[in-house]
Amino acid sequence: MACIRSISRWEWLLILAIFIAISITEYIFTYEDVRIGIVLALFTAIGIYLVISVKAPGVHVVDSAECLALVPIYILITSSLPWFFLRQIYLLPAVYATILGLCFYYVHKKDISFEELGFKKDRILKYALLGVLIGVPFGTIEYFIITPAPVFPAFTLGHLFRDFIYMLFFVALGEELLFRALIQRNLSYAFGTKTGLVSASFMFAVMHLTWRSVPELFFVFFGGMVLGYLYYKTGSLTAPISVHAVGNTMLVGVLPYIFQ
Predict the structure, then answer these.
(1) Which Pfam families is this protein grouped with (predicted)?
(2) pLDDT tens digits for 120-146?
(3) pTM of the model
């Protein structure tokens, strides 16, 4: 995915400003004041659409800005919905269903085919197995960084299966669709492959500030680079989704019951 037209300085500055605004918003939302974070998310989303409406940048820059706008919109929605009525076991899929809804709305609006996004049948088993081979050590490393406590009193196959389904069809699918198939893909078209890979990985790390762990941020950035590289090299979401789902299942569904 190479940049197909020269990008003006102001277009670079626009995307940089969006990254800075989202980073500040997520930091304040996590560490300072949730209310201020929500207000900043609102102004960031409005600001993005206002600027691209007035200045009319190139189509790939517009696409990049609009898919980045999904991040503050996601913050707004998940912060304002009345989640209290949901049982705890349904909270995670409900939150990530929000990401999926936003992403699929964007895909529908832009008339992007599933194959363009990376939903392909080619070599699906090979890429899935590759994801397992990478996901197991990734999940193990991440466990020793943040050491999450067990969710349930004891390990059961039923809980493991449920965790894997949640991680595969909600967390991994939602985050890989947003950060790889939309953000990385659009930024790569606009600014080149390397910029798309690094910047999408950075945004992926920023959205994990909620773990409140600096080592975790570095690990997530590195993980984002690996996931993004797999997406770029294979042209498919199968391997990134598989790595993500298996790694997260190891992180919360297996290792906490072995080491705690």
Answers:
(1) Rce1-like
(2) 998 999 999 999 999 999 999 999 999
(3) 0.94
What b/e string do you get for 88-124 counting C-beta neighbours within 10 Å, with b at 16 or more?
eeeebbebbebbbebbeebbeeeebeeeebbbbeeee
Please count the other Cβ atoms lying within 10 Å of the Cβ belonging to residue 69: 21
How far is CA 169 from each of CA 41, 246, 249, rounded to the nearest angstrom? Answer: 26, 12, 12
Residue 25, φ and ψ in degrees, nearest 5: -60, -50
Q: Report how far residue 108's alpha carbon sits from residue 56's, in angstroms, rounded to the nearest whole number.
A: 21
Distance CA(182)–CA(102), nearest Å, equals: 11
Q: Supply 259's token pair.
A: 């080491």
* Nearest residue to 186 via CA among 72, 63, 99: 63
CB 171 within 8 A of CB 163: no
> Which range scores top for mean pLDDT: 1-10, 64-73, 88-97?
64-73
Q: Quick check: 224 and 200 in contact, CB under 8 A?
A: yes
**What b/e string do you get for 204-214 counting C-beta neighbours within 10 Å, with b at 16 or more?**
bbbbbbebeee
Cα distances from 236 to residues 49, 113, 123, 145, in angstroms, run: 30, 13, 9, 29
Contacts (Cβ under 8 Å, ≥6 apart) of 36: 28, 29
- Confirm if 112 and 227 have CB atoms less than 8 A apart: no
Nearest partner of 204 among 239, 171, 234, judged by Cα:
171
